[in-house]
Amino acid sequence: MKKNLLLILLMATIISACGEAGIQSDISQVVETDPVTVTIDLPAQAVGVLVNETPAITVETGDISITSDEFGEYGDQLQRFTINKIWYKLQGFDAGNEADLDITLNIISEGTTTKLLETTVVDAHTKTDDVLLFDKAAPGDVNSAAVSVIEGALLNGTSFKIELVLVGKNVRFQSSSDSFDFLFKFDVTARVQLD
């Protein structure tokens, strides 16, 4: 009896979702960006010495266009995008080098820059796994307006960039320069209207 009741309720839910407008479906994907390379340079006399703070460095990702890569087949059936989570990962720090990073992350879309978050990555040289930057369920200090800019760019089929403004703190390098990569991953859900 309980099984029949559950089946009837499930069918009623499916039928009510169909209506004249068709069926709405959510499609989720996890998309990783191409890496963006950051280089921190120190004067030769600072090699092996603790440097309290380096000058600011600004780098940008390439154009990020999740729509064309992952959701393009749905075209004008896309109704909305939701960013569920954003992660970052660092890779490629030279062995023996140490640094904390003060980072300001900005979203650039259609010529407008919106601050996403300011954060400090302590012991950045040890961060080789994915680190959760944003979770829709618990957004913390992330600027929701910047997340909306990303979602709007995806819906409009336009690209966006992530700008990183970095300052090295407590830096101790065994050479005068170190280059490493930032990668970002997005957990994205698209609402699709199927006719």
TrEMBL record:
It comes from the Bacteria. The keyword Signal applies. Residues 1-21 form the signal peptide. The keyword Signal applies. Keywords: Signal. This is DUF4382 domain-containing protein. It comes from Roseivirga echinicomitans.
